[in-house]
Amino acid sequence: MNGVSHWQATPYTLPLGVGAGVFVALGVYLLRRRTEQRLVPGTVLGALLLFASGLWMGMYALELSRTDFATKVLLNQLGYVGIAPIPLLWFAYVMRHTDIADLPRSIWAALGTVPVVVIGLVLTNDWHNLIWRHLWISMDSGYAILVNDHGIAFLGYIVYAYVLIAIGLAVLVRELVRAEGIYRKQTAGLLVGGTVPAVAGVVYVLGASPVTGLNLPTLAFSFASGTVAWSVFRHRLFTLVPVAWESAVESMDVAAFVLDANDTILAANSAGETCLRVDLDDAYGRPASAVLPDTLVATLGDETDSEVALTCDGDTKDVLVETNALGEDAVAAGRLLLVRDITDHKERERQLERQNERLDEFASVVSHDLRNPLTVARGYLELAHETGEDAHFERIEESHDRMEAIIEDLLTLARRGETLSDLSPVDIATVAREAWDGVAAENVTVDVAVDRTIMADRGRLRQLFENLFRNSAEHGVTDGGSSVTVVVDTLDDGFYVEDDGPGIPEADREQVFERGYTTHDDGTGLGLPIVHSVAEAHGWSVDLTTGETGGARFGFRGVEDVQDTATPEITTD
């Protein structure tokens, strides 16, 4: 009829049109990302599922907008091009998403035949009426809605569709229970996207729709489109196949993180949880810069492995950060970040460096310090042969004593290094007196006033006192025969050894603990390094200051009494 409009506005048209547009746009987005960044194979399945859903909703939105019977029937037929493959595409993607063993090709071929046959039957329905027996327009709701009186072939298709839907939903429920993090959220998105239209479909097929003829599953898809869109962009739905990565990453002993091309966190294992700034569940889908420590973020631009110091859960460790590009069967545009704890390895390297330094120092002492008294001894031996004077033999004996002292200190450092062999409760005063009995230098008085019992290696502590007493004797007693007094007393968190000699100039204090450094003609330059080594092995700090009378004061701090702790922290080599 001329002048009669064939269009109508319904409250269902807009949500259907918007949902169709969202699904088609998402499908294009996924295919473009696959072309540009070679994402997972499941992306194609996801895109096809979105296109089919969008086509179905778009055709139905147009069908509702038309009032003429012929156009409605044509749009209804075209809608089946989207309707028919949806159950199979959804089932196939669920199988891909959950990484269930693939079905034989013969089964997939049989399942794929059904949508093709259905579309063929729809287009030829006027010849057999197997899809619908009768079509008419209902005006019960105030709008012209096409009503389908379905035939036997349609009912067969519904059985086929709901078998696939039921299996898929059961698989997703099982996956939802065992999945974690982003994969659980992906699965939840799929579950919602499949359940809502499935329930609406049951209501529609049973004829219980509140609006006569209204296709509820299509309308349900429009409401589910928002959930699907959120899952695509927030949880990487259709762009990450979870199970293989989940099992691989979670089983690693090292901290592991899966990042996409934009350095967004897609996955993390429990070993990496302690390194995150936020809870593990809150980390998924967020930029690495917002959830990872700055030291890890700084390595993301490195093409090679990086070694950094990383603090996780209050514990600082040396770690090796490895970045691995992911292959085409996973997230090819992303990478796997592995953070390996190499603290023990680095400590062994540092120990080896210290040992090498000691070896270099030993070689220097042997080649220089031992050579000097040896040369002196040989010279005086020749003079003794020539003259027979006793004074020459005395000088030879002095040179031998000098070499013996050097060798003894060298052996102390070479054999003991920085190790502790036996920790036990030790009274500092007792060990200090024993050390003085072994030194007993002339013109030196030792006053032991300390009163403290600690956990220590008794032999190494005695070496510490012996070397301090010898140092005071060598540098405090002058050629004029003046005496020196050494005091051993208590600090709040340790003890000190102080003499009333000339002291050590402030400019020399940083060097006195270096092996080989000495200002005394007969010194080996090893005594104070031994003192520092013993203190460091016990976990104590050493500070060298000026005493109350102007002499040298060696303070040892961080020393804990036996009653305060059972075993103080120590350093081993």
Automatic annotation (TrEMBL):
UniProt keyword Kinase present: yes
Keyword tags: Kinase, Membrane, Phosphoprotein, Transferase, Transmembrane, Transmembrane helix, Two-component regulatory system
InterPro entries given in the database record: HATPase_C_sf, HATPase_dom, His_kinase_dom, HisK_dim/P_dom, HisK_dim/P_sf, HisKA_7TM, PAS-like_dom_sf, PAS_4
Pfam families: HATPase_c, HisKA, HisKA_7TM, PAS_4
Signal peptide residue numbers: none
EC id: 2.7.13.3
Catalytic reaction list: ATP + protein L-histidine = ADP + protein N-phospho-L-histidine
Protein name: histidine kinase
Species of the source: Haloferax larsenii
Lineage: Archaea, Methanobacteriati, Methanobacteriota, Stenosarchaea group, Halobacteria
